[in-house]
Amino acid sequence: MDYMEKITELRAQKKGLKDQADALVQEGKIEEASALADQMEVINKQIAGMEALAEASREHSEPVYDGVLHDNTGKSKGDGEDTPKPFASLGEQLKAICDFRKNHVEDKRLHQVNNAALGANEATGADGGFLIQTDFAGQILESAVQTSPLLNRLDRFTCSSAANAMRWVSVDETDVSKSVFGGIQMYWASEASTVASSKPQFREMKMDLEKMMGFAYATDEMLTDAAFMSGFFGSAFTLAAERLLIDSIISGDGVGKPLGLLHSKALIEVAKETDQAAGTFTGANAIKMQARAMPRNRDRLVWLMHPDLEEQLPYLSIQSGEAAKFLWNPEGGLGNFDTQRVLNKPVLFEDSCASLGVRGDVLLIDPYQYILLTKGTARQDWSIHVEFLTDQNCFRMVFRCNGAPKVNKPLTIKNSSKTRSPFVALADRK
């Protein structure tokens, strides 16, 4: 019998009852809340009994690793729903890890998570740490992506548990004026006539996973509160991962980190206007930048801007005769927009953009043309390790991910001498 699975179910039931009780107390229904407290006490006794049985079961059995993880039906186990989840919260696992490191209080649940991930009994993770439970690890990076207006627009891929890189074939094209996919053409042909053959051009692309690490320190007082640890460290690592990813996606050099938009060979720079003041963004800049974006999929375009540019946007306009036509729309407004807009494209403010007047402070991009590769939302490769540096409690979170633009060259379209790209930047205005 899988005692830990039953214990996890009981803990989930207890949490559900606690949430109900909290709501009843707020409504002033004290008697009903007290009845739920009695039910939680019964569950506590059941959990204690199951933990005792689980401990007795471990003492009288010696698991053997045969190279494949199995469940009790003999089927091999993957990294998804079948992986053990003995801890009810992230804080509970962090506290167990710290107790093991500092006080040598061993919690068998730590080894249960590690054994499933590493296939080794009584083992610890890399650098003597413990792997974080898969659902907690996945939730942190997934939350970082989903809460970011930029990251959740990217084209996302997931590496399998056995892989540390992704290979794919991409179309190799620089000119779509006569053909598509690097050579495919269609013709109007009269009956019984022949047409020239055509074939696509491809290039192989490879992306290796890189390692993202985060550190956080906790006092002994913090470690006693598992609920606080879950909320605090979960939010802290989520925000830190989001900021580091955005920074690399915009300006990363591709060395041990994602290749950023500003280092893409497909990036097109739009020159400043004659006599344009330093650090300014004008209506003419916006129109010329949009004109260099790809004609298709315009609905996916977004502006990336440094927040210092926000105060200039309400004045963004072009002159039409004697009147000025404004290119900016506020949040809400007539279209009930959830973001400010320029030329009806959403504006995302990111302080990872370059400073005011420097190339990269304003970008117009199609984020779907950028790949974000992760190890998966519930993979044991996202691990947590505990180290003690200068006598402090230190948690280290490790994620595996990478990113790069899909295209590496601007494109030439039909009947035009101007190249287009999904990534357009405004040049320096110093």
Automatic annotation (TrEMBL):
Domain Phage capsid-like C-terminal span(s) in chain numbering: 128-411
Region spans: Disordered: 59-85
InterPro entries for this protein: Phage_capsid (IPR024455), Phage_capsid-like_C (IPR054612)
Transmembrane segments: none
Domain of life assignment: Bacteria
Compartment(s): Virion
Pfam families: Phage_capsid
Bias kind Basic and acidic residues: ranges: 59-84
Name assigned to this protein: Phage major capsid protein
Organism field: Candidatus Intestinimonas pullistercoris
